[in-house]
Design a protein that fits this description.
The protein is of the alpha/beta class. The chain contains 8 helices and 9 strands. A hairpin with an 8-residue loop joins β7 and β8 (about 185-190).
Length: about 270
């Protein structure tokens, strides 16, 4: 028996609450081992992202080849991709190494409004990566950007949203409910066999730094351990809920009294 392994391909967060840092924390907490490949370096803190610099496609490819020529991975989590060139590298590597259980968190914009994927690269991400991924995990804003629509995320919207993303090549979609106005936090897992809902009470906190990264990497960790997709989503959802329940526990020494902060949840 080998240790379940997850490769996270994502950005670097010096604040420690998103990207490869929280992916690694999450994967290890759930009993897996995390390999991490950096797509971009960000400058960010509790109040947002102030800068992004992508690695070169040559360096991204070198990181991936060096790692994957040595080890086999059981699942992959993809986060921030930055630009078209990096998308092309990742798609090529997935096919070249036959990577399975690929979970794509289609990160487009930071919660503070900083673009994390060049607008011109969105269509390339859909074209090249959606068909290669087992699961795509958009939030409501990302779904509306991808579909050029203005859905509210209600349950009656889900079939139309799902059909549109299936037509773009997605195999399974987890529509995350954190950005909706529903009383509960309801995530909808859509597959060709139907839609399954996952519910937790909504936690009233501003400290949500890294929630999307945590959820997608938790799903990948559970898939790496051999769980079905539905079971992986259910376990990841509960893991996130537990972390959100303690989201206000962190006590960092800040330089100002600003209350406009989003602290790491893990």
């Amino acid at each position: 028996m080998s240790t379940p392994t997850v490769l996270t391909i994502a950005g670097f967060d010096p604040y420690g609450g998103a990207g490869i840092q929280i992916d690694t924390k999450t994967i290890h907490a759930l009993g897996g081992y995390a390999f991490s490949v950096v797509t971009a370096v960000t400058a960010q803190n509790s109040q947002g992202v102030s800068g992004v610099e992508a690695v070169s496609p040559q360096m991204l490819r070198l990181q991936l080849d060096t790692l994957l020529k040595d080890v086999k991975v059981d699942a992959v989590k993809i986060g921030m991709l930055a630009n078209t060139s990096l998308i092309e590298v990742v798609a090529d590597v997935i096919e070249a190494y036959g990577l399975k259980n690929v979970v794509l968190d289609p990160v487009l914009v930071s919660s503070s409004g900083k673009a994390l994927l060049e607008p011109a690269a969105v269509e390339k991400m859909v074209e090249m990566l959606f068909p290669l991924c087992h699961l795509v995990t958009p939030n409501l804003d990302e779904t509306n950007t991808l579909l050029k629509r203005h859905f509210s995320g209600k349950a009656e919207d889900i079939p139309e949203m799902a059909e549109s993303l299936f037509a773009m090549g997605a195999e399974n979609i987890l529509f995350k409910g954190g950005h909706t106005a529903q009383e509960e936090a309801v995530d909808h897992l859509a597959s060709l066999s139907g839609v399954t809902d996952f519910r937790t009470p909504r936690i009233d906190t501003s400290h949500t730094h890294g929630t999307g990264c945590l959820l997608s990497s938790a799903i990948a960790a559970c898939l790496a351990k051999g769980e079905s997709l539905s079971s992986a989503v259910a376990q990841a959802k509960q893991f996130l809920y537990g972390k959100l329940q303690g989201a206000d526990a962190l006590s960092l020494h800040y330089r100002s009294k600003s209350t406009e902060r989003k602290e790491p949840i893990f």
